[in-house]
Amino acid sequence: MTSAPLAARLSIPSGPLFFPVTAYGPDGAVDLDAYREHVRRGVEAGAAAVFACCGTGEFHALTPEEFQACVRAAVEVTAGRVPVVAGAGYGTALAVRYAKLAEEAGADGLLAMPPYLVVAGQEGLLRHYTELAGATSLDLIVYQRDNAVFTPETVVSLARTEGIIGFKDGLGDLDLMQRIVSAVRSEVPGDFLYFNGLPTAELTGLAYRGIGITLYSSAVFCFAPELALAFHKALNSGDDATVNRLLDGFWRPFVELRAQGRGYAVSLVKAGVRLRGLDVGEVRPPLHEPSDDHVKQLARLIERGEALLQEDM
Question: How far apart are the two ends of the chain, measured CA to CA in Å?
Fold first, then answer.
């Protein structure tokens, strides 16, 4: 059942959903000043929401104390202008702990990431997410990917659960997503939110739009918000000529570059933020930094993307 406040704020795609990186200083500690600046720039650029300490934000690498400090900083910077959704993950007990930390920090909702390591059956997955939803007053978005893959019947049960307002897909199985959307639409009254959560969602934006999913997370927004906003506007206005030009000239080459290294969905994005003038530090192990050559390729790609935008002016 949808809870109006957060669901209503997320349902209209006014801009890309912003998943900020987590900033670290030279000593490897969280740099809250740089993090606040990163979040501030994103909100002022036009982000529709801030998803703090999620995948791009290296949730896996943060202590509970660091997690709460970052969520609190994001809440302070946004000052209610856009909702703040925090990550929550691992097993049920730890997910509940992170949910309570996020609640104390003032977050508006949670992105519930897959449980750690185990491959659970549908009954166990359903119990995990319903127990998490029942342990917090925050609205919950369930994230499908890797070891948390759901049947349409399970998603129907999730959509009927108080506090669960949406479903984010990081798997990319459009046949499964169409069946999920159809099943929930047929069996659960009211609106239920869906998000394209693939690592570079713009590349599949046209396909997801075809099954009615227009909300998506944009990693590129972290370092090139002008590109992400132009793509978002074109996609949602039906300007497919602009969409295809940006796909061909920027997003496809970016995805091909991202595929050159494991963990580049985070570390290459972080390199992009540094290229644009904000020192957010390096990624924490076990992730690693992109090679110098790959960073140079990213810089050229950003320049190419900017040139594509100039063609519209």
Answer: 44
44, HSE (Cβ side, Cα atoms, 13 Å): 7
Is 130 marked within a binding site? no
Q: Tokens for 48, please give them.
A: 């529709």
Owner of token pair 């997503």: 177
Describe the crossing of helices 92-105 and 64-78 by its angle, rounded to 10 degrees. Answer: 40
- The tokens for 53 are 């300490």
Of 35, 168, 194, 264, the catalytic one is: 168
User: Domain extents for the chain?
Assistant: 15-225
CB 178 within 8 A of CB 208: no
Count CB atoms within 10 A of the CB of residue 152: 18
Please say if 168 is a catalytic residue: yes
Asked if residues 108 and 138 have their Cβ atoms less than 8 Å apart, the reply is yes
Q: State the catalytic residue, choosing from 143, 194, 216, 264.
A: 143
Whether the Cβ atoms of residue 47 and residue 15 lie closer than 8 Å to each other: yes
Over residues 78-101, the pLDDT tens digits come to: 999 999 999 999 999 999 999 999
Cα angle at 48 between 43 and 53, to 5 degrees?
Answer: 70
Contact 44, 242 (CB under 8 A): no
Q: Quick one: which of 226, 220, 305 has its CA closest to 268?
A: 220
For residue range 123-166, what is the model confidence (pLDDT) as tens digits? 999 999 999 999 999 999 999 999 999 999 999 999 999 999 99
Instruction: Show the tokens assigned to 305.
Output: 């993307």
CA distance linking residue 279 with residue 289, whole number of Å = 14
Would you state the CATH architecture of domain 15-225? Alpha-Beta Barrel (3.20)
Q: What is the pTM of this model?
A: 0.95
